[in-house]
Amino acid sequence: MSHTSWMDPASAPTTQLVLVAVVLVSLLSCVTRHQQQLRRWFSCRGLQRTQDVIPPYWQNAGRSLLEALDRSSPDYFDDIYPVPLQNRSILQGFLNEASSNTEVQFNLVRAVRVEHSGLWSRYQDKAAEVASQRKVFKFQGTGAPSTNCALAHVESDGWEGGFVHALDESICEAYLFHGTDPHSALKIVENGFEVKKSRAGKRFGFGGYFSEDPAVADRYAGEGEGLYRACYALLLCRVLLGRQYRTTKFRDESVTEEAFRQRFDSVLAEPHGHLHREFVIFDGHQVYPEYALVYERVSADCWMCPSPVRRYWADEEADTAEMGSWSLPAYWFHAREELTGAFHETHPDQQMKAVLEDLMNKTWLSDPTVGSRPGHTGNHEHATAKTVGLRVLKVIRVEDSEMWRDYKAAQRRIRSRRGPPSCPPLHVHTVEALPEREHRRLHDEVNEVYLFYGSSPQRVMYLAHHGFPLDGTGPRPDEVLSPVRGLEAAGADAADALPAAFKLFGEGAYLHEDASEADKLSSDDKGGYYRGYFAMLLCRVTLGNVQMLQSPDPEAHQSVGPDQAFDSSCGIYGDPRSSSGMARREFVIRDTAQVYPEYALIYERLQRQRRGGNESDSQDAWPGEQIILPSDRIEGQRLLLLP
Strand, coil or helix: what is 437? Predict the structure, then answer.
């Protein structure tokens, strides 16, 4: 009997084809299951960066991330972009819908998107490191954070432009909230998370704490200072959770240490019987803070927590009875304190820029050359270019306890001298330009008003810090000169030698109801910090009984004072038949304690320049195109003149 091979040679090719097919099917199945991971292996995400790594909806999309790592490179970027109003409304709605706390709602004050090439690059490197483990991770517990799905629907609610970048769930990437205070939020978006210094949570040990529920993150949020007093902050971050260590304990400070020792990337705290989960990471590079949200807490009955952001033009009547005769304005940061200690603070007031710019332009007389002050020929800028309006660059609010105490004391003296009955009413353009509801903050019975005071930036900053100077019962002689351009440095002898035209309505501080008139007396810093920019003060003024002067009277101040019939003077000049249809008025205050310099305004002029004998219709800033102000120092404190 002959022996034959176990396989017929004729059938060998067919068998080999079957084996090859089986191998190919197996490979295809493997590729299908791990296609996302394979793409990462071959693309070398951490080594070969392409332009599409930058989220496509960023302003800096299209730049080379590799070139953007060097700070000296023109491709480097470190910017924040305000979220438009429409998108901010959608984002606020999302926060309140996602929050588990129905008793307190979020009221967004500010929302910005962070584009930082350095932080983004480090985040990408960390993602590549997690992916290099060649594993596909799965979200532990009840699954992916709810924010991953919820944020995807935000763009469908009318969001303009992109909002969130595609997430790589193979490395458990998620969008999560982190609660902090506004100042710390600013530091984080500039420098990234420093987990080793984090003190946000202690329930599960060291680390950065995040939540899918904004109400839980809000528990870690702290109150801000200064402008953001009574405001809080949330960061909406991209977070790499990677390999998760899950615990069901309510508190265990050793969890993060154990997870870190076992080379986990994060901790998922999912206590039994509790609705809210928390995520803890160990490395700050696992986080990219993409959105910074500053907000106020609003209760269910819509009572707003006191906040300067919402109380700029607040009604002071309710506070007067509580705080006595020295009542502080309700929107001041010291409003809830007794006026016993001394304080002086200057607060950059970003929220007031639009309000005061509108006020200045409403009180801008369209024909500033008509009705010029007798004896004053105007300044060179107005002679060579027609100013059509003003653009406010910086607003600084002054809170000074001593100046305010002196101001309220002067107001009480006038009230006791002149009333009841009250002083004859006087209407000024500055107050009339404000909404009716805002008039209640002023005391009409003593003719308390807001008036402008124009001068140089240096002079304005000095007065904002020290107040209007006094010499006995009246201003120093050089204070009389301060409204007149070019004479700020003059002394007492120069004051006595001045022509009578420069003291038209007597001695005192000269203020105006129209921004255009105050602007005539403003000057820029020809060779210093404020070159090309101008300044004026918006002051609270208690006029009392006003002496109306239809013609110049250099001795008018002799009828003003405690033992006289009047508390201030109002000089009228100009022709009411001019194109503006009104005469000009300026108010002279002998006792400068009646003036409180509440707002310092740094601004530029919008004007139509004459080119080759023709007037251009384009509006430009006078005198140049520079839009970045330098800084000033007041007693060692750096005041940034642009936000």
Answer: helix
